Amino acid sequence: MFFEKEVKEYLLNPEKMPKHIAIIMDGNGRWAKKRALPRKAGHKAGAEALENIISDANDLGIQHLTVYAFSTENWKRSEEEVGAIMDLLRQYLKSHFKKFLKNNVRLDVIGDVTRLDADIQEQILEITELSKEKTGLAVHIALNYGGRDELRRAVTKIAQAAAEGKLHPSDITEETISMALDTAAAPDPELVIRTSGEERISNFLLWQIAYSEFYFSDVLWPDFDKKELQKAIYYYQNRDRRFGGR
Ligand code: FPP
Fold first, then answer.
1. Given the CA of residue 50, which atom of ligand 1 is nearest to it?
2. Residue 243 lies in a domain
3. pLDDT in tens, 25-77
4. What's 220's domain CATH number?
5. 207-241: per-residue pLDDT in tens?
6. Residue 226, in any domain of the structure
7. Catalytic residues
8. Within 6 Å (CB) of ligand 1, which residues are found?
9. Which residue in 58, 128, 194, 230 is deepest, having the highest Cβ count within 10 Å?
10. Does residue 68 form part of some domain?
11. pTM of full prediction above 0.85
């Protein structure tokens, strides 16, 4: 493809920046394996890559970044690996939130957090509260997140409102559903990135990606850097988006 050739710099059009980018951060395990390191070292490197991408996206003027950090399916991994990711999350929230606040970044979590350890839930509440007025990049971290589970929870909320007589079933619109999702506060992502050469959606933002552009990169997540992000945005800016029209 034309954008595959080595370009020193990707000249981005500031007028056509996506407002919302969603990323499936994949390949931490393979990154570690290539270096004969334990899987948790791959996740640690992945968390560092995320920290850099948050700054880069903020610098580029992106308004929303949603990252898939832990899916409803990830509980099936070994206890050791799940524990390592949770510990990393604790450290991450603790050590980075001051930097986030300083850089005007707002932190939000999507997914069913009730299954996370109580101390992590408290950290999340504290940080989301402290950063809620920030006007820079909004980072939505997907934790214990699954698109189908999110839709199930949204349907439950809507059905509850209908059962209580607050909403008539014939008044349910697409907007009603969007507003009942965890992502109610963000526009749908225009661009979805998945790293590590895998080309699946893996239960990520199923409703919200109806018109998204997809960008699949062979780069393993810990190696995904600003240049790769610019390349993905460059690809997006050169797509012809028609939304089903001509
Ligand atoms: C996918 O790589 C990555 C995950 C399931 C976890 C994502 C976690 C991070 C990026 C770091 C943690 C960040 C926070 C904020 C806690 P994989 O393990 O599926 O890689 P593989 O397919 O190569 O095995």
1. 10
2. no
3. 999 999 999 999 999 999 999 999 999 999 999 999 999 999 999 999 999 99
4. 3.40.1180.10
5. 999 999 999 999 999 999 999 999 999 999 999 77
6. yes
7. 26, 74
8. 25-30, 43, 46-47, 50, 69, 74, 85, 88-89, 92, 141, 196, 221
9. 194
10. yes
11. yes
